[in-house]
Amino acid sequence: MGQTRRNKKYLALDVGFKRIGVATSLSGIIASPSGIIERKTNRETFSEIERLIKKYGITTVIIGLPLTSNGKKTKMAEKIEKFAEKLKSYLENKKLNIEIVFQDEYLTTATAENLETLKKRNRKDDIAAALILEEFLSNRSTF
After folding, report:
1. Disulfide-capable partner of 99 in 6, 43, 60, 110 (CB 3.0 to 4.6 Å)?
2. Please, what are the domains in the chain?
3. Are 49 and 94 in contact (CB under 8 A)?
4. What region holds the YqgF/RNase H-like domain (predicted)?
């Protein structure tokens, strides 16, 4: 029998050109904004993601995929898919068998920017990652 959602630990990534918003769910129920990764080289970025995976015992990485309102891939979505392929290869080379799943992130960054509690613009990326993770968790039905 596979792991249930409560046994899994999730890391969500809201991938942008300059920054990656990060959120975690260590219970499989609640998503928490967990910071920002400043993008540098892929190697440095992947190393930071690897560090978080090991730190939190992550089993699944959820990556936000920007689709249009009618579900079609954007150019950024294609870039993110390539990023995810490279990340998966990097993790496999590090002997980490981590599931990578895509989650539609339509409007999550805009929603994060509009939350009244966000006075600082630099918090939108990890809030967007938490919204991506919450959407993913709400679509899962197994406990």
Report:
1. 60
2. 6-72+82-139 (3.30.420.140)
3. no
4. 8-112
